[in-house]
Amino acid sequence: MLLLAIDTSARATAALVRTREDRTEVLETFSTDQVNAHAEVLAPAIAGMLEQAGVSGGEIDRIVVGVGPGPFTGLRVGIATAQALGFAWGVPVGGACSLDAIAWEVAAGGAATSRFVTAIDARRRELYWAVYDDAARLIDGPHVTAAAEVAAHPVFGAGAGLYPEQLGAVGAEAMLGWDDRRPDASALAASAARTLNEGGELLATTPLYLRESDAKVPAAMLAPKGGAR
Q1: Rounded to 5 degrees, what are φ and ψ at 226?
Q2: Of the candidates 209, 223, 184, the residue with the CA atom closest to the CA atom of residue 5
Q3: Which domain holds residue 112?
Q4: Boundaries of each Gcp-like domain copy (predicted)?
Q5: What pLDDT score was predicted for residue 225?
Q6: Considering the chain, what percentage of its residues have pLDDT values greater than 90?
Q7: pLDDT value of residue 219
């Protein structure tokens, strides 16, 4: 199965992945931290990936797009790009929780516990987070809350690095070495491939905003405690 995965929940990232049973081969990847340039760079980057791999859009079996949680603008760009490519190529498009990507990497890296949390920055001094089991299957969430309200399990992902003291105070230990991790398209593809191989369904491509637009919130509330990071 040939998958194109796209995620723009925290940065623009895309991957062309071939899966066979329980094996995943990453053919091409792209990522950029230029969060204000997602729309300008994503489609050309995907075209370049396909050219490098010698693959046409019509050969792709499924497009998987991260539906968040994440900010309005970022999620819209990724989902709109996936839908436009799916329409142009005649390829089905399905969604996946962006936090699944971090959970997949945690489990694949042998760091998973029976219950663990993945978390990324939600601005407003809050985190997007969800709880997973040791096989990276979603148990609870996703949620958007202050760090003091995160479930008391080990916390992986860039959100953990923002508020380690607040997390520790409620028994949610920030895991060092994983505290800069953000959703990656190749991991999202691997997680989605397992769902499909097990006969499951992907999510709809409806974005998981979880709250109103940041544009309506005073700028002073948007930076992590202690200033932007």
Answers
A1: 95, 0
A2: 184
A3: 99-169
A4: 36-139
A5: 45
A6: 83
A7: 46
